[in-house]
Design goal:
37% helix, transferase, Rossmann fold, 408 residues, kinase, 6-stranded parallel β-sheet, binds adenosine-5'-triphosphate, ATP-binding, binds 3-phosphoglyceric acid, alpha/beta, 17 helices, EC 2.7.2.3, glycolysis
Length: 408
């Protein structure tokens, strides 16, 4: 059982809140998409309007990545979205950070620096060891409680996610609460239940497919994206060097054997693309799987029309559809068709749940609306769907509880 903001007396409380505002970054270093910041507006507004003193912890990108930047732009955008001043300090556990947090008054908000600018944050620890890191030991004394609203990062056992709730009373923010409610009760959704696994997180997707097929949660698993390409190769289709090389370079070559084992065990419940889209003379060109030329040099970048018609028939009559990852390289106009059409079909299903940061960006870019639930998480959502525990959620469940005020 996890306490929520309904269980917290916020007035005058200094709250360290972990959010996931990890966002695409534009070439100028600013935010290219603010969806994840928007997702946390309700939680942050509630804490501030209830008189909380709010210190925001978050990560951005990964060390070495082009999107590994400061959170200053995030703080500026949060101020616009919240309609109130939001301070920023380029520290997260130093004297400057503590002074900024200690200076907060009721209704104030400060964004601390990208947690991953600090080396221990990009390591995974058991919660007790995470609690001993400099980040937690340096900042926790300035906080009264910890709120975790970062569902999309909850599969990471990193100090800002599992260390603080080990030493402070922990609460779920409104995003975390909603995600756990929806993704934690898939077995209660209407049947037949269809999973659509696309995108590029091949190993996570195969984990989900095994889990939901073994547990009888899925009546069908439809594959698309890089996941679909891996299953096609596992099924003996020669997609050509371009697609195979991409899969190898992404480190997923070993997943082909896992996909083959899954097809052996549950092949009747797994649908593979029947045609793919490639680039030919700068245009989208669709080719049937059985018509691929030998030594094909054109990479399979999307699913084609025959596949979409096939998947549409499978989706008819579904009670629930759960989707993760785009159907193709949606960032390119020529290859957004699969994601647009497949995800559009999904919104006609009674209960439609979609997950993934890139997927959510795709839906906004493509104007696809009408899902029952759009998860902020990609890997975290997939982990939930395999009923695997999320370290950050477990840390909230096992951490100290705030001493309830003694009954008078
Ligand atoms: N056939 C394909 N070939 C190569 N890349 C593909 C293909 N289909 C989809 N992709 C890529 O997959 C990426 C998204 O996959 P991913 O699994 O990361 O989605 P997500 O789970 O929504 O994202 P996130 O990891 O942010 O949660 C996109 O960048 C897209 O270009
Ligand atoms: O975008 C995400 O999937 C989350 O923010 C987690 O980011 P990570 O994969 O870099 O830990």
């Amino acid at each position: 059982m996890i306490d929520t903001l309904d269980d917290l007396d916020v007035e005058g409380t200094t709250v360290g809140i972990r959010v996931d505002i990890n966002s695409p970054i534009a070439d100028d270093g600013g935010l290219a998409d603010d969806a994840r910041l928007q997702a946390h507006v309700d939680t942050l507004s509630e804490l501030l309007e209830r008189g909380g003193r709010v210190a925001v912890l978050a990560h951005q990108g990964r060390p070495g990545g082009d999107d590994f930047v400061s959170l200053e732009s995030h703080a500026d955008r949060l101020a616009e979205l919240l309609g109130r001043p939001v301070d920023y300090v380029d520290a997260n556990f130093s004297v400057a950070a503590r002074e900024a947090v200690d200076a907060l008054e009721n209704g104030d908000c400060v964004v601390l620096e990208n947690t991953r600018f600090y080396s221990e944050e990009y390591m995974e620890f058991e919660p007790e060891r995470a609690a001993e890191t400099h980040l937690v030991q340096g900042l926790a004394p300035s906080l009264d409680v910890y709120v975790n609203d970062a569902f999309a990062a909850a599969h990471r056992s990193q100090p800002s996610l599992v260390g603080f709730p080990t030493v402070l009373p922990g609460y779920a923010g409104r995003v975390m609460e909603s995600e756990l409610d929806v993704l934690g009760s898939i077995e209660e959704t209407p049947e037949p239940r269809i999973y659509v696994l696309g995108g590029a997180k091949v190993s996570d997707s195969i984990d989900v497919a095994w889990s939901v097929l073994e547990k009888g949660l899925a009546d069908h698993v439809l594959t698309a994206g890089v996941v679909g390409n891996v299953f096609l190769i596992a099924d003996g289709v020669d997609l050509g060097d371009a697609s195979s090389d991409f899969i190898y370079e992404q480190g997923y070559w070993d997943e082909i054997d896992r996909a083959s084992d899954l097809l052996d065990a549950y092949g009747d419940s797994i649908a593979l693309p029947r045609d793919v889209a490639v680039e030919r003379d700068g245009e989208r060109y669709e080719i049937g799987i059985n018509a691929l030329p030998p030594e094909n040099e054109e990479a399979a970048m999307d699913i084609g029309s025959s596949t979409l018609e096939y998947y549409e028939r499978l989706l008819e009559g579904a009670g629930t559809v759960i989707l993760n990852g785009p159907a193709g390289v949606f960032e390119e106009d020529a290859f957004e068709t699969g994601t647009r059409r497949l995800y559009g079909m999904a919104t006609d299903v009674d209960t439609s749940i979609v997950g993934g940061g890139d997927t959510a960006s795709a839906l906004r870019r493509l104007g696809v609306e009408g899902f029952s639930h759009v998860s902020t998480g990609g890997g975290a959502a997939l982990r939930m769907l395999t009923a695997e525990p999320l370290p950050a959620v477990t840390a909230l469940e096992n951490g100290p509880r705030q001493q309830q005020p003694a009954d008078d």
